[in-house]
């Protein structure tokens, strides 16, 4: 990937997040709380699904089958627990993108077996709070040079 592609990927990811959460930094605790309290519409669910690029993961996160995910796109406001799960999942992807300086590389890492996770694929762990915490811990260790 050349630097223009990398920059375009970064810009698209940034614009997507700004579109979803205008004027809120979801990586900060207060911004995250504000976004969760504001809720997510079905339209934003569609954008998150495209942003993450994994219908199965998004469907599992909201307790649906992937074949029924499109029905949820018509919902006016998702339940608070679903909103929390989805925004937290986006936060994990953004944390990985910051470490790799690339959303594409972050997605590649999220879909690769990781030895420090016992060979698990991070994306398969993101549908629960405990799984997101495991992935988050691994990302923090990578950020501080403990894992490569």
Explain what the structure shows:
The protein is mainly α and 148 residues long. It is built from 9 helices and no strands.
Note the main attributes of this structure:
disordered N terminus, 148 residues, globular
Characterize the overall form. Answer: globular
Average pLDDT over all residues:
86
Continuous helix count: 9
Query: Ranges with pLDDT <50 over ≥5 residues?
Result: 1-9
Distance between the termini: 21 Å
The number of strands is 0
How does the helix and strand content classify structurally? Answer: mainly alpha
Q: In terms of quaternary structure, what is this?
A: single chain
Query: What is the radius of gyration?
Result: 15 Å
What percent of the residues sit in helical stretches (DSSP H or I)?
Answer: 55-70%
**Main β-sheet description:** none
H/E element order: HHHHHHHHH
Strand content: under 5%
Task: Please give the structural blueprint.
Elements (H helix, E strand, L loop, with lengths): L2 H18 L8 H10 L3 H11 L2 H7 L7 H4 L7 H21 L2 H8 L11 H4 L3 H15 L5
Helix pairs in contact: 2-6, 6-7, 6-9
Question: How would you sum up this structure in a few lines?
Answer:
Helices cover about 65% and strands about 0% of the residues. The protein is built from nine helices and no strands.
